[in-house]
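Risk register update: the risk of archive-format incompatibility is retired. Evidence:
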Amino acid sequence: MSYIQSVKSVIADTVLPQAQNTDKTGIFPRATISAFGKTGIMGLISSKDVGGMGLGLSEAAEVIENIAQACPSTAMVMTMHFCATAIIEKLGETATRTEIAKGNHLSTLAWSEVSSRSHFWAPTGTALKTNDGYTLNGSKTMVTTANEADSYIWSSKPATGNGASSLWLVKKNQVGLSTQKTYDGVGLRGNASAPMTGDNMKIPASALLGTDGGGFDIMIGTVLPVFCTLNASASVGLMNAALALAIGHTTAQKFEHLNSSLAELPTIRAYLAKAKIQADMATTLRNDTLSAIKENRADAMLRVMEVKASAGEAAIEVTDACMRVCGGAAYRKDLGLERLFRDARASSVMAPTSDVLYDFIGKAICDIPVFG
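Archived output:
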């Protein structure tokens, strides 16, 4: 069975049956993550040397797009796991890499802070060099899978080095690591996001990922392309799911006195057509971004910044149009559209936010240093 067949099998057997309840209760989809672990999908981008599938960003994007059509919350969990895995594969210890490849280890990023907000590359938490390692202190505002992950890529100011940040692999059972109450949000309710605090966490020197002070380059060079592309892929999957529901509803429901479907109204068809164009444009840009990254094109980072903003904003507009054409039925839980409508709102405010990305893109095209 191919990797995508495995993904679709888990979606049909586990993700779809749980999606509405995951949204309703806000309970983390543990059974789904376990199923992805058993089929090897958790180790999709892990090297074959440690037992992984050895696949890349294009395959991960396909996986996320498919999952998001059924449950965007689960898609976000997997997105953050792949982001963390990209770092661990490059800089982490073999034991953790092997556990990820086996499907026994879920990881995530712990970067955003109240003090620097969407400027995730500038943490204010501290790292202190000690005789036998380091001591970390800091608070994170929103960590996906905070109560559920087995490890966290934690960011801080450098201990002694130059640079904006350092990155550390912090394990789930780390003394001093605590999680506050999981958020009860509007959308993506099943991704177990919550604030986390590190209080005098004493970690070994081996927990440093890369060099002290080298976090910024890892964040931008390794993680940003993965995060933005996979986040956009989740938005693409979400849009396609919303369109399928809207088209299905408007073609099936009739004006009995006219013996015609809702889709026979030119206004409804026009809204659907515009939404389809937006979804296809976002998909095309996502695919070109993947090509730019793979080919190491000069415009690759520009595409990376564009793709998340483009797809995230398109998802808001597409789901809004789908709600509009379905009328009052769209507000019922049973159609499933209002869940996608709520989930679509998360991307635009997820760091780097759409507004931050617009500033980055504007600087890039005006030949101004993006992070200057």
